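Weekend entry, working from home. Most of the wet-lab plans are on hold until the incubator is repaired, so I used the time to fold the two sequences that have been sitting in the queue since the last round of cloning. Logging both here for the record. First:
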Amino acid sequence: MPVAHGEPLPVDGVCDPRFAAVRDAFVTNFTDRGDVGAAVTVSVGGRVVVDLWGGWADAARRRPWRRDTLVNFFSVGKGLSTVCVLQLVERGLLDLDAEVVRYWPGFGRAGKERITVRQILSHRAGLPAVRDPLPDGAMLDWDVMVQALERQAPWWIPDTAHGYHVNTFGYLVGEIVRRVAGATLGTWLRTEVAGPLGADVHIGLPVSEHGRVAEFLWPAAASPRAPSAPGDDELMRWNAYWNPTGLSGAGWVNTAAWRAGEIPSTNGHGTSRGVARVYTALARWGTIDGARILHAPILEAAIREHACGPDRVLQRPSRFGVGFQLTQPERPLGPNPGAFGHFGTGGSVGFCDPAADVAVGYVMNDLGPRWQNPRNRALIDAVYTCL
């Protein structure tokens, strides 16, 4: 698809004429809102109506973004991880209201004996960070991170408040899945979700696919300095992102080790089409094109509100179901109250709106504003103007 006259960036793909406003918003993200490389896919009624990609897959702006370009979509992986957990619940292998120690005995230390699986998934467990300093690179050593979380005491009394488990979510959920399923979460995602749906999403990217990955542009200024004498809450918030130093990806995101590792909360890779494919199934209560990944009752229960209000980590209101972010006025996923999904660092997002039978996947490689991102907001708004 040619871009507007004079636009120097390569943009390609398909767009139903009824959704021209989405194409316009996508192009404007490059011309006015700082996108470097990105892709967006929208489905309505189970049919793809927008599938666009454009810009550059590297900082030097020599590699055009292709239809199959992969990129790290950060916390979008939390929504995909949640689907895996819900599958285990639906199959009778996991109970959301069971104490974690039923499946992971070593977890029951330092006041964590009564924490439930549901509390972890809804960010109410009080474990958003590890207190003890960890060496840079430790985030890629699964055993080191799991053992650190076994030693860690809750930062608040579990289930009395909520706070976004930015990175620890992946290890906590991933270890539960590993013990229950006998497979890593990335393996389960590949065989039970991505495979049946034909969705190009990965947690733990095979080396054979690394050549498709876009370079993620992470400016040095995006990694703040540690507080000099932090109080307990300040230390908790800092460590949630930066203990170990590379936990959120800074300095590591473009390495082969990061791409191949499994941090379900943080280092998932995929295409916008892959993300939208999963959420198209969820928009239709778990089924698309004869492939079923979940049934409606468990999904309906998972998107009921479990946490809402002041977030002890984000220091602003947040709203969660079981694993999924729920739409909220400060960060809307469209106008309808039943929309759910997950945002990722820098602007990526995957979500669906069952009432409108809409699903959206947007991925990018330039670190934009983390909370209210004008790029994804423009795309979401444009989708709903076209319905």
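Second, folded right after the first finished:
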Amino acid sequence: VDFIFSNWLLMYLEDKEVLALFGKLLSWLKPRGQLFIRESCRCQSGNKTRGANPTFYREPEQYEAFYESLTSPCGLYGFNLLFSKAVQTYIKRKNNNNQVVWLLQKVKKIDSPAPGVQSWQDFLDKQQYSTRSILLYEKIFGRTFVSTGGLETTEEFVDMLNLCPGQSVLDVGGGIGGSAFYMAKNFGVKVTVIDLSSNMIKMALDRAQEVGCGPDEVVFEVGDATKREYPAESFDVIYSRDVILHIADKLSLFKKLYKFLKPGGKLLISDYCCSPGIHSEEFKAYVKQRGYYLLPPLTYGKLLDKAGFVNVVSEDRTEQFEDILRKEIKRTERNKEEYFKEFDEDCYKDLLDGWKDKQSRVQRGEQRWGLFYAEKPTA
């Protein structure tokens, strides 16, 4: 079959039954076929007292673990996530983030990105963006932020976009929502945040309630920006902070983002970059361990030209990056006791060592930071 729809079914099955059913669904679908699922997660949605309740209120991550663990009998096919999000009507009407939908696709499985993980989403959630890691990043960047410079650089970069009330913004790799909240609250735009890390989006939904941002202002999706499809010319602005470094085929992504933008729409990206030429073994090991695909700033900008964008501006912001790192290290050292209280001494040491290593790579000239602005032609 080409498409399978499931609504409030898996929540009534035991774990082994869910896993068995996912296997059958995978076998029934044609290659590239899609599976849509909706489930109640985490807890009961209503407050009605029940004498007996056969429902299993699982964490969304449990369903993700089920479908990610599957391959077809010959090992060639498995499920790939296209997107997942909380149902907006439930958030808006009942302040309930626990009604979750997924759209999966049957695809040929590729090699695992790292030992012990099934997919890039699994890699991010288990390693770089575990919940504890996200909280540490937030501690150093500032509440609701997980990208370089936190609110300070967000204010600077968003100011370049001349946002207007009613505009639609796509935030690619928007993390736990800091930039999206800032744009929605200060400029009256509606922001769609897509991030491949389910840990990020789970925390973002909590932060949205904390700052008072509803689904009419910011919508969150777990999804892969290289696979997610939106209607052509859906967004006035596309914004992305320090995440495209994870994507190898940047040109294909830029062409996709170009399609999503309205004529005259604007694109702004900050991202980790590298120096041109040969790199040290230490730097190459760091890039491999992180799963990064880095380019020199000028090369990065040329890909935007090639994708069809005009008025492309490519800036090497490494000097600013080094200044930000220096401030972040000083602030972290000053707040040492807070880290010990909220985390532990080992977390503090690992974070500080990581930032000092990053500072050294920047000072050696191998790691750089780029800022890129581009527009889609008006006609």
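Plan for Monday: verify the second prediction. The first helix runs from residue 15 to 28.
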